DNA sequence: ATAATAATAGTAATCATTACTGATAACGAT
DNA sequence: ATCGTTATCAGTAATGATTACTATTATTAT
């Protein structure tokens, strides 16, 4: 894999964000530094980085892939009202039980749904 | 919500399958009973049933929505080779911990990835 | 520096899903 | 039971995120 300025930029953007941006959002950020960068380049590199396990993908109900630069074991909480994605601490509870079935776990995606604090308060008011 | 023969058929199909079919697969099954049923009808009713929480959706890496007629708390194991989806027992371990953060959980999606038994054996041979 | 070729910008194509439209069917009121 | 209202349907067109394609540019080993 050759070096490319564009890929380094995309990697930096994801690794330095604590939200879970879509390709389009990353494209927007990238254009601030690299105005001519192509959306296709963003998608191609996101897929590359995901294949290399440099980043994680989250398939959500908004039909867009969200990317996460934090590859440590952790799960996510998605607000069912606003769709906001919040990082949760490492759960990793049942894997042992699952491996007793003969299934070897190489990754996990654990998502909980509900209202985030902001939206829960909104509803009350 | 009015009764419709098509919706009943779609509901029956999902509830009586233990796999996690896509809209297209359900459409295929439905056409065996109802040859003129429309793909749009299948999609519309799947969305309706999901909104009513009669069924569950699974957003996976194959970019297709998979549907699950079992709405009881359970998680899924997806083979990263063949994409096969296997039901797992109820994990539901950390919700209490999560709710301590002030987040109220109304649903969860917990997916583990790895090789299913079939694919694991294939690799060895 | 040069050649070989990975990576890019820009655009076209793909494909799951959704929206639209005129026809059909469910069902409460008569 | 028929009628009128309107949800639902079949069929098709549109949408939109993602991927593929192509000519050009940039990286890197020699």
Question: What does it look like?
Answer:
2 copies of one chain form a homodimer. By secondary structure, chain A is α+β, with helices and mostly antiparallel strands. The first copy, chain A, has 2 domains: 5-55, Winged helix-like DNA-binding domain superfamily/Winged helix DNA-binding domain (Arc Repressor Mutant, subunit A), CATH 1.10.10; 75-124, Ferric-uptake regulator, C-terminal dimerisarion domain (Dna Ligase, domain 1), CATH 3.30.1490.190. The first copy, chain A, has helices spanning 5-15, 23-33, 39-51, 95-99, 117-124; strands at 56-59, 65-68, 76-79, 85-87, 104-115. In chain A, the strands form 2 sheets. The first copy, chain A, has a 3-stranded mixed sheet. The first copy, chain A, has a two-stranded antiparallel sheet with strand order 1-2. In chain A, β1 (56-59) and β2 (65-68) form a beta hairpin. The longest helix of chain A is centred in the middle third of the chain and has 13 residues, at 39-51. The model of chain A has no long low-confidence stretch (mean pLDDT 85). The A-B interface holds A 57, 59-61, 63, 75, 77, 80, 86, 88-89, 91, 93-95, 97-98, 102-117, 120 and B 57, 59-61, 63, 75, 77, 80, 86, 88-89, 91, 93-95, 97-98, 102-117, 120. Chain A binds a DNA duplex (30 and 30 nucleotides) through α1 and α3.
Topology readout:
2 copies of one chain form a homodimer.
Chain A: H1 5-15, H2 23-33, H3 39-51, E1 56-59, E2 65-68, E3 76-79, E4 85-87, H4 95-99, E5 104-115, H5 117-124
Parallel strand pairs in A: 3-5
Antiparallel strand pairs in A: 1-2, 3-4
Helix pairs in contact in A: 1-2, 1-3, 2-3
Chain A binds a DNA duplex (30 and 30 nucleotides) through residues 1-7, 22-24, 36-41, 43-45, 47, 63-65.
